[in-house]
Design brief:
- This protein is an alpha+beta fold.
- The protein has two domains: 3-104, Heat Shock Protein 90 (2-Layer Sandwich), CATH 3.30.565; 107-280, Nucleoside Triphosphate Pyrophosphohydrolase (Alpha-Beta Complex).
- The chain is 22% helix and 28% strand.
- The chain has seven helices and 13 strands.
- It has helices at residues 26-31, 33-47, 157-169, 181-186, 229-233, 257-260, 265-279, and strands at residues 4-6, 17-19, 64-76, 79-90, 101-104, 108-117, 127-135, 140-145, 148-150, 179-180, 218-227, 239-240, 247-253.
- Strands 6, 7, 8, 9, 10, 11, 12 and 13 form an eight-stranded mixed beta sheet that branches. The protein has a five-stranded mixed beta sheet with strand order 1-2-3-4-5.
- Strand 7 and strand 8 form a beta hairpin.
- Residues 104-275 form the Nudix hydrolase domain.
- Keywords: Hydrolase.
């Protein structure tokens, strides 16, 4: 039987009533990491409205979260995999609430792997590892993308990236060799990151591929390595991943990546970050923020 409960009240906010579906309990929902992260982050965003320079600072324009209705949940055994919910977020001025249907799935990682043959004396030959695999939501059985995967409940961005690289390519990569390009790029970003009108420092240091409908954020990593050409060629057409994933490894010249990966947001975003960081000579910078956190 579906249940209803009220979230613990936060000072200055109205009560938030939550309506669940039959196969989901209150304990499962409030303990699920993607929901906890979303709620904490959104409440921080709402709190920013108290700043006099915020675009929604006026009392009747301030938005508050009023209710959450879970529409569907996909359970993976006894844990939540994906969840769809409809929120009501509104102020006193407008009759209509903000568009608030949310597909919750949590964070992911993607890795731009650039391989350079040792035999190339000019060091300008670069190959990128891509995967070909079925992606039913995209209506494709042969979707091309850079290696990517979800973050588990206890994992960090970098740890998940190294794990995903091994699962999809069988290459063991030390976490210390991975560069978080999104985190590095955001260090010098100015738009709405540090100004009082809408600081977004509390958002994940990652790329949001579909913020109009999904909470997913993707940390984009770089792993660049020089290795014997024979080892690079051995990756071509290699089958990898768990049995249900049916992943095939493809090698693409770096110069062709923007075209070959044009359908995949992760690939295009990683390529753009690599190009930008290379242009500014910042790939060797320390990516850690002031607190030295990993960002997950």
């Amino acid at each position: 039987m579906a249940s209803t409960f009220t979230l613990p009240k936060i000072a200055g906010e109205p009560p938030v009533e939550v309506h669940l579906v039959d196969n989901l309990t209150e304990d499962q929902f409030v303990a699920w990491i993607p929901f906890k992260n979303w709620l904490e982050t959104f409440r921080q965003s709402l709190a920013l409205q108290s700043d006099v320079n915020h675009p929604f600072h006026k009392e009747d324009e301030r938005y508050t979260l009023r209710s959450i209705e879970v529409k569907a949940v996909d359970m993976w055994g006894n844990r939540i995999g994906f969840l769809m919910m409809k929120t009501v977020v509104k102020n006193e001025k407008d009759k209509q609430p903000l568009a608030g249907t949310v597909f919750l799935r949590g964070g992911s990682v993607a890795i731009l792997m650039i391989l350079r043959p040792e035999e190339d004396e000019d060091n300008d030959e670069r190959w990128v590892v891509m995967t070909q695999q079925p992606r039913v939501p995209a209506a494709s059985l042969t979707f091309y993308e850079i290696p990517a995967g979800m973050i588990d409940d206890s994992g960090t961005f970098s740890g998940a990236a190294a794990k995903e690289l091994y699962e999809e390519t069988s290459l063991e990569v030390p976490v210390s060799e991975l560069k978080n390009m999104t985190k590095l790029a955001l260090k010098n970003a100015k738009l709405a990151l540090k100004d009082a009108q809408g600081s977004e420092e509390h958002l994940q240091k990652a790329m949001y591929p579909s913020p109009g409908g999904c909470d997913e954020y993707i940390a984009l990593f770089l792993w660049e390595r020089t290795m014997p050409r024979i080892e690079i060629n051995e990756l071509r057409g290699k089958l990898s991943g768990v049995d249900s994933e049916k992943i095939k490894v493809k090698l693409v010249r770096y110069e062709e990546l923007w075209k070959e990966g044009a359908r995949d947001a992760k690939t295009l975003a990683a390529w753009a970050l690599y190009e930008g960081l290379t242009r500014e000579g910042r790939l060797d910078e320390d990516e850690d923020d002031e607190n030295g956190e990993d960002g997950a």
